[in-house]
Specification:
Length: 427
């Protein structure tokens, strides 16, 4: 059934009961105040230290979409990396599993590389008699590797843990296995480090204890640390392209800063950067005036060094969860810049280790490469989309895999009414 017009109007009319606070002009003005007064550096008053600061000059820039699309690529070859999962699945025998496969793309194309996969299945059970053979094995004529991993009893967070460890273990091992083949630039589909795993320490004491007591999360993080070290040793840059940035480091810090005497209106940092990077003007309209966005140019910030939130463990102030770092600690620090694409009203975050972005020429080349990719593809870089296509497990494939797993486990998947209600629907 669909909404009757009277019901639709009734729901929409509730908007009139909500006073959304400061108007849009005030919020844009406040964003400018934040940019001018609080980010160079962003100071954490509670811990009395800088947690965000520009790598060099704090500035916002523009680049015409058509002009940058026609420039020569900054890097002659590019590789992309991504991992896809079937999502956590619970079975009636108590098993909770997730399966991830990682793949790497290349431009120019490399068919043998595209064929290769790293597959990880993570398994959780409260039955302590359950065992898993955890050694690595090869399949597909030696092109691909696979491994099953047992997760210790952690019932409250079982689904989140099996998902994160499968995803990040597959991605990091695949990256290390093919690192030598990357000669110019590697683009990760997502953040530079396993953000989901690093966030555990802040979520709940049980997860914090798991990080300290179980070697698996630390091993996964170590893979990313070794990946950075390998690329630094070979002087080959790598970046992470975050399509849906959800960081709250700036907004959370501003809300806790007594020097900011105005309520911070943004839900996350992406909303703030959208206000800072969106260009346009107010034009006359029938009901007063309206904001008209300029869609001709990509806008972007300078690079920032981030040492707070989930970026803290890999900063000079963090301990990397106990992982031994062979380079100076600042080499691993997360640096990032933000791109705003006015054609779709979308924000992207690009991350790279400070070991590369400390060099002005490398910073500019990395920014130019990603800006050109975004301008040409009208979205995430084509190399990232290519890796996503290789690694993605489609919905029909997920359902087929679940059936095969049911047969292998001699049980059936635990179903809910929603599974029954939406059975067969695409989502």
């Amino acid at each position: 059934m669909t909404l009757d017009p009277v019901h639709f109007d009734g729901i929409a009319g509730l908007a009139g009961r909500i006073d959304h606070g400061a108007d849009e002009r005030d919020r844009r003005a406040f964003a400018e105040t934040v940019w001018e007064e609080f980010l160079d550096p962003l100071w954490d008053r509670r811990r009395d230290r800088a947690i965000l600061e520009p790598v060099d000059e704090q500035v916002r820039r523009l680049v015409d979409c058509e002009d940058v699309a026609l420039q020569e690529p900054a890097f002659p070859t590019v590789h992309g990396l991504d991992a896809g999962t079937i999502n956590p699945t619970t079975f009636k025998n108590g098993l909770v599993i997730d399966v991830a496969q990682a793949a790497m793309s290349a431009t120019p194309s490399d068919l043998d590389l595209h064929r290769s996969r790293t597959v990880v299945m993570t398994v959780h059970s409260n039955d302590e008699t359950m065992t898993v053979e955890e050694s690595w094995g090869k399949f597909d004529g030696g092109f691909s590797r696979r491994r099953a991993v047992k997760i210790p009893p952690l019932p409250r967070f079982a689904e989140g843990v099996v998902h994160a460890l499968a995803l990040y273990l597959a991605e990091s091992k695949h990256a290390l296995a093919h690192a030598d083949g990357v000669t110019d630039l590697l683009v990760l589909d997502g953040p530079l480090y396993p953000r989901g795993l690093l966030r555990w320490a802040d979520q709940h004491p049980d997860l914090a204890d798991f990080l300290l007591e179980d070697p698996r999360p630390t091993t996964v993080l170590e893979n990313y640390v070794r990946l950075v070290e390998d690329f630094v040793d070979r002087d080959v840059p790598l970046v992470g392209f975050v399509k849906n940035p959800t960081t709250r480091l700036i907004t959370r810090t501003l809300k806790g800063n007594r020097d900011v005497d105005v309520a911070v209106p943004w839900s996350d940092d992406a909303a703030l950067f959208t206000r800072l990077l969106e260009r346009g003007e107010y034009v006359d309209d029938v009901e007063g005036d309206r904001w008209e966005r300029d869609r001709s140019a990509l806008s972007y910030t300078n690079w920032f060094r981030s040492r707070g939130g989930v970026d803290e463990p890999l900063s000079v102030d963090g301990d990397a969860l106990g992982v031994d770092r062979k380079l100076p600690p600042e080499s691993y620090e997360v640096t990032f810049f933000v791109i705003y694409d006015p054609r779709d009203d979308l924000i992207y975050r690009v991350e790279a280790p400070y070991a590369f972005t400390r060099d002005p020429e490398t910073r500019e080349r990395l920014a130019l490469q990603v800006l050109q990719d975004v301008a040409v593809s009208h979205g995430p870089p084509t190399i990232v989309e290519k890796a996503d296509e290789l690694a993605r497990i489609s919905n029909p494939e997920k359902r087929s895999l679940s059936k095969r797993l049911e047969e292998g486990f001699e049980t059936t998947q635990k179903r809910t009414y929603d599974d029954h209600r939406w059975d067969g629907d695409e989502f």
